[in-house]
Specification:
Order of helices and strands of chain A: HHHEEHHHHHHHHHHHEE
Low-confidence stretches of chain B: none
Order of helices and strands of chain B: HEHHEEHEHHHEEH
Low-confidence stretches of chain A: 242-254, 282-292
Helix content of chain A: 55-70%
Number of helices of chain A: 14
Number of strands of chain B: 6
Number of strands of chain A: 4
Oligomer: heterodimer
Strand content of chain A: 5-15%
Strand order of the largest sheet of chain B: 1-3-2
Shape of chain B: globular
Radius of gyration of chain B: 17 Å
Shape of chain A: rod-shaped
């Protein structure tokens, strides 16, 4: 099969391939997909060839926690062998073999770097796994990445010391990839640091969660003496949730919904209350004082003392101080003066009423 | 934003978190050292201490609390600690800055049938009806500045505020 035919095959069956990639397997697939070895029958179901899955995962930056990084031992052995044969035979065929092996190793470095980056990102954002499992996964990855240090160093040294000067084509290739390769090797240290930091933070979070659970159990079983003591001792510097005290009264801050309810009720209440219009009493008072100024009450009192009247009201009513008033008005004014006189000690009440219906009072 | 406006918020018993959207202006104001010191001096005269640590600000009372106040103070802390323990039990990766959905909370609650979880709810809300307690649970954490509605019109999304660290500190100090 040509590559163009492979691409055509992929395009023709893209839906089946996509479902199998996302869901893991299919019950039925086209015969040509099986013939092309893109699908393999396992346990009565058709699964995508692992090589294709790895290729897709790599391009889509999907990396499983169970990834096996492996080392570069096989490529290293082949390189050593090819170099030896080239030195012995000077056959250009071995130069091609060496450059291919170097390129393969470079791809391995390149992909590994991306895979570790993706794994780190996945670990840092994974909230679906149990914390213990996540910590275990991170520990495993740290171990795998740490193992790469020696392998990277070994290949780096081999490129630098053993392959330089062997052939011009090899030197040119090494020259073009050295910088990137050094970057990948240095990145390993950064990844190890990041993984260690992630592990410390996640372990701290696990511990915090456990501590929260432990303390909540203590609260539920009322065995939280340490918490009580801490709160008592540090009360001065702890969040103050209540308003200042007023003689042992604790006034809690009302909740917003309570405030809204209260406001609504007050609003309704205030609309029900009928507020009377203020009385215009000022002019009346002025009128009264003016008239009292006209009537000389002191004179009436003095004459009462002299005459010892049997009916104070009649005395006032007939007094010349009130002579200027008409009858109805005189009654009103006489009564006002009568009221002013009543508090005096010399006044004695009688049981009867005069013909104006006013209780008879004597001046004795 | 002035001292009076910030005081108005703090005096309501609000823990102002630096990742709060609602009190972003107040937090920014308090993060300026001069403002913090100036307000701190005024608060001292009024009988309060202005505290700023770990990405949150709050007032504490300078004088000793009376018995009733102290009791309420302790009960409130215990209730919030239990509520956070519930959150941590359902969402182990929860931390300040996490966006929590009330619907996810209900789903997680249903999936995790746990007697201790029920006990915690009962302790705080005095009812065994978990469904009835969910809204009160979110209200309580919102009122106590641990959660904040992500958008003012959204009923589902809540932002976990930095003030969570205040309670984490208490837990770390009291549990070995």
């Amino acid at each position: 099969m040509k590559h163009s035919e492979l691409l055509k095959l992929l395009a023709t069956h893209k839906e089946s391939i996509d479902i199998a990639y996302r869901e893991g397997s299919l019950e039925h697939v086209s015969a040509e997909l099986v013939e092309s070895t893109l699908f393999v029958k396992i346990n009565q179901r058709y699964k995508l060839n692992k090589n294709y899955v790895n290729f897709a995962d790599s391009l889509l930056q999907r990396v499983d926690y169970s990834i096996i990084f492996g080392n570069y031992e096989n490529e290293y052995k082949e390189l050593v062998k090819a170099k030896k044969r080239y030195v012995e035979s000077k056959d250009g065929y071995y130069v091609t073999t060496i450059t291919t092996l170097i390129e393969n190793l470079y791809f391995k470095f390149y992909n590994r770097d991306r895979e570790i980056q993706v794994l780190l990102l996945r670990l840092q954002n994974d909230t679906s796994l149990d914390i213990d499992i996540l910590i275990q996964n991170a520990t495993d990855i740290l171990e795998k990445v740490s193992e790469l240090i020696d392998a990277n160093e070994k290949i780096g040294t081999f490129f630098k010391e053993d392959l330089r000067g062997v052939a011009e084509a090899i030197d040119t290739l090494l020259q073009s990839i050295t910088l990137s390769l050094l970057g990948f090797i240095e990145n390993i240290d950064r990844y190890i640091q990041a993984l260690n930091l992630f592990l410390v933070q996640t372990k701290k979070r696990r511990l915090q969660n456990k501590q929260f659970m432990q303390l909540s159990n203590q609260i539920l079983s009322e065995e939280c003496g340490a918490l009580d003591t801490y709160l008592l001792v540090h009360a001065k510097h702890l969040y103050y949730t209540i308003t200042p005290s007023q003689k042992n009264r604790v006034a809690f801050l009302p909740e917003e919904r309570d405030v809204a309810k209260l406001s609504k009720e007050l609003h309704a209440l205030l609309h029900e209350i009928k507020i009377p219009k203020p009385l215009k009493s000022t002019p009346l008072k002025l009128q009264e004082s003016q008239k009292l100024e006209i009537i000389d009450v002191e004179r009436i009192l003095a004459e009462l003392g002299e005459n010892k009247s049997e009916d104070i009201f009649l005395f006032v009513y007939t007094h010349e101080e009130l002579a200027c008033y008409e009858e109805a008005k005189r009654l009103e004014e006489a009564f006002k003066v009568y009221i002013q006189i009543l508090p005096h000690q010399e006044v004695v009440y009688k049981k009867e009423f005069n013909h104006y219906g006013i209780k008879v009072a004597q001046w004795v | 934003m002035g001292l009076d406006e910030v005081f108005k918020v703090l005096s309501k018993g609000v823990l102002i978190s630096i990742n709060s959207q609602k009190y972003a202006d107040e937090a920014r104001f308090l993060m300026a050292e001069d403002n913090f010191e100036e307000l701190g001096k005024i608060m001292k005269k009024l009988g309060f201490i202005l505290n700023g640590e770990n990405g949150y600000f709050y007032l504490s009372k300078k004088e000793k609390m009376n018995d009733a106040e102290l009791q309420a103070f302790m009960n409130n802390h215990k209730n919030i600690l239990l509520c956070i323990a519930i959150l941590k039990q359902l969402f182990p990766y929860l931390e300040s800055g996490t966006v929590l959905k009330q619907t996810d909370f209900i789903v997680a609650l249903k999936q995790k049938e746990d007697a201790l979880l029920e006990q915690k709810f009962e302790y705080v809300f005095k009812t065994k009806d978990l469904k009835d307690s969910v809204e009160r649970f979110f209200d309580l954490l919102e009122k106590n500045s641990i959660l904040e509605k992500k958008e003012s019109d959204s009923k589902d999304e809540y932002l976990v505020l930095r003030a969570l660290e205040y309670y984490t500190k208490i837990v770390q100090s009291t549990v070995a």
